[in-house]
Design goal:
43% of the residues lie in helices and 15% in strands. By secondary structure, the protein is an alpha/beta fold. The chain has a domain of 215 residues: NAD(P)-binding Rossmann-like Domain (Rossmann fold, 3-Layer(aba) Sandwich). Helix 2 packs across helix 8, helix 5 packs parallel to helix 6 and helix 7 crosses helix 9. The termini are far apart. 42% of the residues are buried. Bound molecules: NADP nicotinamide-adenine-dinucleotide phosphate (NAP). NADP nicotinamide-adenine-dinucleotide phosphate binds next to helix 2 and strand 6.
């Protein structure tokens, strides 16, 4: 038995790319609460440890750590406006990162990689609810097509490694994620952190809290620590499954952007100054995703209600405003 096999049997070594991001931080929070589970060792990477666009650096680092599993979260990520403004970067950097992670994992004989896609990469014109089989059924929404095609290729690449080399390379498909340690940048962030930051500034300056678009679009938001719990569960329970897995709250828990804006404004006690700017685009109207496959594994998993998740996120933002990503 090789040294590596010995380690696999005793302790699962998990390399987390994107370990400093929203989801990586949530995984750190989840495992920091463990008191008894010592059968796993996590290594969290950020872009300061290595640039995953650099194949040689990726090879050197994966060889050094020799993980059993890679939880591949690293990506160039952003909200609607960043996706529309930086299409070349969203396409090229994400393709480079994903190409390196999977090909180097294979070269280093890492047999399991769990990679992150997103429900925003599903076809624009489709039937609802969307399920795992529909990923490639039509073009994505024009607003984020560059990011979407890069992510879709990650699924194609994972499946190719399964088919040609028998690797357990699989993808998860989370819906919109939010929570502590998110990116709160006003121009680049996803809708919830951007609205939290906007509302904070509006309140401080006694200005209207302006929300882009009509507020009508619907989204399923998953709290980052719920997603982290599900990803950690997958390490022991989603082995050689081959199919991607949508990680989402129930379709009934889809909410409008307007509802989210009201929740955030209420946290800042600023509801009477909320204004919708309908001159700005809405993005895709809805992307309702089925979590039936997830529910078939975890029928009784309890998700954090959006009202509670927003409260926790606003509390975190206020406590970390000077240093948070913004
Ligand atoms: N946020 C969402 O709403 C959402 C929804 C669905 C799916 N997802 C997917 O979920 C995953 C995690 O997203 P997230 O929101 O946690 O992202 P995030 O907060 O933006 O974090 C991105 C992470 O990737 C790292 N990274 C970026 N470029 C890199 C590079 N060239 N080399 C090495 N590391 C690099 C960053 O490192 P630094 O901190 O050092 O920059 C950071 O740790 C991504 O794959 C994303 O596509 C996100």
């Amino acid at each position: 038995m090789t040294v590596k096999r010995e380690r696999e049997r005793e302790k699962m070594k998990i390399l987390v790319t994107g370990g400093t991001g929203l989801v990586g931080t949530a995984i750190k929070t989840i495992i920091s609460g463990w008191t008894t589970n010592k059968d796993k060792e996590f290594i969290f990477l950020s872009s300061s440890d290595l640039d995953l666009r650099d194949g040689e650096a990726t090879l050197a680092l994966f060889q050094y750590h020799q993980p059993d599993v890679i939880l591949h979260l690293a990506a160039v990520v952003g909200g609607l406006f960043k996706n529309m403004r930086e299409k070349v970067r969203m396409l090229e950097e994400n393709i480079m990162i994903n190409m390196n992670v999977l090909s180097v994992a294979h070269a280093c004989d890492v047999n399991r990689v769990i990679s992150c896609l997103s429900t925003c990469i599903f076809p624009d014109k489709t039937s609802y609810p969307i399920d795992e089989t529909m990923l490639h059924d039509g073009p994505p929404h024009i607003s984020n097509d560059a990011y979407a095609y890069a992510k879709r290729m990650l699924e194609v690449q994972s499946r190719a490694y399964q088919e040609q080399y028998g690797r357990d390379y699989v993808c998860v498909i989370p819906t919109n994620i939010y929570g502590p340690a998110d990116n709160f940048h006003l121009g680049d962030a996803h809708v919830i952190p951007a609205l939290i930051h906007k509302c904070f500034l509006a309140r401080n300056e006694s200005l209207p809290f302006i929300v882009a678009g009509s507020g009508r679009p619907l989204r399923q938001f998953i709290y980052s620590e719920d997603l982290a719990t599900l990803l950690v569960w997958m390490l022991d329970n989603y082995i050689d499954q081959k199919e991607p897995l949508i990680l989402s709250v129930d379709p009934n828990d889809e909410v409008s952007i307007l509802y989210i804006a009201h929740l955030i404004a209420a946290e800042f006690q600023y509801e009477n100054r909320l204004v919708m700017d309908i001159s700005l685009p809405d993005g895709q109207y809805k992307k309702t995703a089925s979590n039936a496959r997830l529910r078939s594994f975890m029928p009784s998993f309890v998700f954090t209600p959006i009202e509670e998740g927003i409260k926790k996120t606003v509390t975190w933002f206020l406590a970390h405003y000077p240093t948070c990503r913004k």
